[in-house]
Amino acid sequence: MFNLLKTSSTARRGTLKTAHGDIQTPFFMTVGTVGAIKGLVPDEIRELGGQVILSNTYHLHLRPGEDLVEKAGGLHKFMNWDGPILTDSGGYQIFSLTGIRKIKDDGVEFKSHIDGKKIFLTPEKCIEIQQKLGVDIMMCLDECPAHTADRRYIEKSLELTTEWARRCQTFASRKRNGRIFAPQTNGVKPHLFGIVQGGMHPDLREKSAKQLIEIGFDGYAIGGLSVGESNKLMYEMLDTTIPHLPKDKPRYLMGVGTPENILEAVERGIDMFDCVLPTRNARHGYIFTSQGIVRLKKSEFKDDFTPLDPECDCYVCKNYTKAYLHHLFRAGEILSHRLNTYHNIAFYLNLMKNIRKAIEEDKFAEFKDEFLRKYVS
Amino acid sequence: MFNLLKTSSTARRGTLKTAHGDIQTPFFMTVGTVGAIKGLVPDEIRELGGQVILSNTYHLHLRPGEDLVEKAGGLHKFMNWDGPILTDSGGYQIFSLTGIRKIKDDGVEFKSHIDGKKIFLTPEKCIEIQQKLGVDIMMCLDECPAHTADRRYIEKSLELTTEWARRCQTFASRKRNGRIFAPQTNGVKPHLFGIVQGGMHPDLREKSAKQLIEIGFDGYAIGGLSVGESNKLMYEMLDTTIPHLPKDKPRYLMGVGTPENILEAVERGIDMFDCVLPTRNARHGYIFTSQGIVRLKKSEFKDDFTPLDPECDCYVCKNYTKAYLHHLFRAGEILSHRLNTYHNIAFYLNLMKNIRKAIEEDKFAEFKDEFLRKYVS
Known about the structure:
2 copies of one chain form a homodimer. By secondary structure, chain A is α/β, with parallel strands linked by helices. In chain A, 41% of the residues lie in helices and 20% in strands. The first copy, chain A, contains 15 helices and 18 strands.
């Protein structure tokens, strides 16, 4: 299901087959946490060259609930997107959003961040939810410990994450009357990815990777990075983890990151990314451009009648000036969120397109240098 | 510049020529107060059959300022809309938004609702601002007294409004070296409309209309309605005012209203409308449909997999269910505002399209009855 087409040094260009179409790697997934991208319709993601939307198991479980989504005909139909969907398991959200929680061997008990209702999530339940949502790529339930946690805690946490991963895989592969029970769309069953944890300890990362590979997954994610540690440390963790991952499976760096982070990770052999940066920053007036970040709020843009990014040909850059977008941002208009988001997504998806092209032409290193030379972060 | 094509009883179907194209009447103007429709791009207004966008002189004067907009190449270019634009004078906003104000013979002194800065607006300044914005239809500065004000106050207020209207017209028609100074686009100078006031007093309404007609305007607006009075009283005011307005000029009922209000007013011979209802209500989850208002928040829509309006073929109704839109509304997603707004605007513009068709076929009364029979308000 993963086909490695080409490499440029250790950067990889491939194809990932899913029930809702083939995805060209490396790719960036636009975040639509609750089954909606903040301000954009899925048709616009398609128009911008987006291939995959990421949604969140934890959020959708709380609201509107997987049973409702199943009744609606699945998440694709519910949100009007017929391309591939990956759902994060929600492990990260449970550990970052919910205050009181109890980790048990069985699963995790926590309070809903919406209404405080007590909820118990097991690895099995987590897979069942994702199956009901009908997504293309499911993630295992994991514990994402703080990067400042002590080694003892991370060791214990890793044991749990591995055990949960095993249970997720068992549940996802369960058979009934000798046949695989997992739902299939277009003859393809959903992929299940394991998540490598281990904090900032190279040996624990290695251990985690090996344990997951032994269980066997359709792809391997690296979790617990970009959680407050330095870029240098993040790259070190990638350097120590990636060599332990199989070459014939897709590699997903979760929740990362800035354009620089993405380039560094692609260079190290990562195939998949997701991040709230382009969408969230857009709403705060942080615009990604080929020349670096434009902070729209600044009064210097009051009478700047040039587009956000001279090298971008998206709808926003073709039709609006910084002066107008500055005005909308200052006035707190909803349209500001929408247009800024549209451009930022265009920028990220365009970056990925250029990355894929550069790898195909075996010029990734040159592309990266050229990009970072202009991009002042 | 106004061409009356057809009547159906007293309902009128015509064409209003402007520098940015002909407008088919009766029409509804989507509100874009600060030079932006809340959540939508002008291209979408066009796609939905919208002909005119309304913006606000007061708001644009405060931010970003008419000089900036002029430097940007005018409001059309600034906001990316090449169709006609009407700007409300801001009189209404000054009297409803700003706390402390002093009305002087010269003009009105008030404090900006944004930063409290003291601002003095004269009739001449008001026209100058609109000329700098480069709009197609300008409105005179008027005073809009509370409908509960006593007759003495309204009489005095009306004197001022008439005097200001005269000064607006004088300023707009001013000549330099024997030539009209007003800016022209495509050989057409902007239209200037007078605003009939007079509170809820038929004789003052009549007096106001006659005074304005004596001054002479390109069109006549009826202001100070839909400000808290009953529908019955509003219709009575229309009944007593409209007969005093010239047949060969467009008639604009400002800030009105619900679908019922629009039908009643068209029946009485009104040609132009604007209102925040479709956009503002959308954000509060009040959806206009052929069967009446749908309050999206209601839990009955949680698992309603039908479109907002079975008779609507807009993008939202074609691609999304009430269940999904209910979910977005409950989750407070920006996309909720956008999709609800899109549908509500589609509904209003479609209503106007059907009204125009019904008048053309001389079936307006039947259309109105049929519409209101289904529309449960």
